[in-house]
Amino acid sequence: MTSLVSLVQALGIAYASGINLYATVTILGLASRMGWIGPLPGGLSAVSHPVVIGIAAVLYVFEFVATLIPGVASAWETFHSLVRPPAAAALAAMTVWHGEAFIILAAALLGGGLGVVTHTTKLGLRYAIDSSPEPLTNGASNIAELGLVAGVSLFVWNHPWVTLTLALVVLVVLVLMVRLIWRALCQVFSGKWMPGPGLLQGARCSAASPPPARERIDD
Length: 219
Description:
This protein has 8 helices and no strands. The protein has 219 residues and is mostly helical.
């Protein structure tokens, strides 16, 4: 049972890492050093080292600023397709590092797969948001993302099953939302989008024009 709980906790960390790796490492490290959580299991305790926290924090600030810029945000997220899933697998394996070998392998495989799903979902959402040439939606997305990552990273230790279940529900909702957004954008860009029937109204005249006068025919 303890191994299974550790595996669930590892998947929670992989989930958060797939969304934002640098925020996850920073939050875990700071929370561990302040005594909010911990001690962190396995090799995951390495994230509480000051050097690791400092590097992760600087990278997170750089990422937050970069993702406020339309175009740069999409490029940044695309590049991190090569970073987040492997890191999610590594952190998941480190979480259960002192467990049995099959638990470590399962954590790496499942953690990497979950990291791919969460990152891909975020990537699709970021592409959709980035189509709007203003930083407000990007900033709101960054704040919401930070809240989700912090919640999962902190609560998965005391309430692993509930936290992972709620996180997966949020993931399903996000996948459906991204799908709907992209379907709408495809219709708009292809010129197939039409307003709803309630928006279709006939032309209105400002004033009723008088009927044309009949021409008199002289006898």
